[in-house]
Amino acid sequence: MTGSNLDDVLVLIPARMASTRLPGKPLADICGLPMIVQVAKRAEEAAIGRVVVAVDDQRVFDVVSEAGFEVIMTRSDHQSGSDRIHEALQKVDPEGKAKIIVNVQGDLPTIEPETIRASLRPLEDASVDIATLTIEIDNEDDKTAPHIVKVVGSPLSGTRLRGLYFTRATAPYGKGPLYHHIGLYAYRRSALERFVSLGPSVLELRESLEQLRAVEAGMRIDAEIVDTVPLGVDTPADLEKARRILSARQA
User: Fold this and answer.
1) What pTM, to 2 d.p., does this model score?
2) Rounded distance, CA 61 to CA 126, Å?
3) Which phi-psi region, left, alpha or beta, contains residue 174 (left: φ > 0; alpha: ψ -120 to 50)?
């Protein structure tokens, strides 16, 4: 990102131990390393700034620390990843050195470092509060699937949208591309602090999409268009797929 340096950017990786579909998810073994360590390695490979893992369980804390990554303990009762990273931010950077906070979810062990770097690009525009990622949907079933969140956006260039709305519905109506939202965010520090101070909004609760809190508050979210969707590991089948992907890369 133009005008930024490694001191400006803080990558925070929230890791929550509780998972109904994949118990103990952060510690699941992927090619000889716990999943959360694999995610930390991808963030380190992105080489955009300091990397800190925010955990809520001593077992996860210990494995991350033993792997040589910076880790901070946070409360276990946070309702969202943004709340967890805000607590972590206050603890690891109380002096306010970091101006941009990148939230990389702790269940993305196969994410490409370049994908993480891409999240910073929309912040080159000073009017953007929050940056995120998206990809054009090419699967017809995904266009109507409620678990695939869509970005309704106004094109700014061939690689960027200005986010106007986010929805589980099939939108916008009519001919043209549909875009799948990838939930990786880069916040200006002031935007993150404002976001967590607002509390849940009406549309956020209705769609069960946290980013709508920012939209309803008039905050600007731009989405960078990328080429691949990072695999989010939520089930045993996802875990096996992640193992195959990383095994192939290491071969």
Assistant:
1) 0.94
2) 36
3) left
Here the CATH number for the domain that contains residue 45 is 3.90.550.10
Residues 6 or more apart whose Cβ sits within 8 Å of residue 62: none
Q: Are residues 183 and 218 in the same domain?
A: yes
What is the domain range of residue 122?
112-229
Q: What is the share, in percent, of the chain residues with pLDDT greater than 70? A: 98
**Tens digits of per-residue pLDDT, 172-213?**
999 999 999 999 999 999 999 999 999 899 999 999 999 999
46, 76, 109 - which closes a domain: 109
Q: Is the pLDDT of residue 2 over 50?
A: no
State the chain's maximal CA–CA distance in angstroms.
52
Phi/psi of residue 237, each to 5°?
Answer: -65, -40
* Residue 122, number of CB atoms within 10 A of its CB: 27
Q: Are residues 119 and 200 in the same domain?
A: yes
Asked if 186 and 119 count as a contact pair (C-beta separation under 8 A), the reply is yes
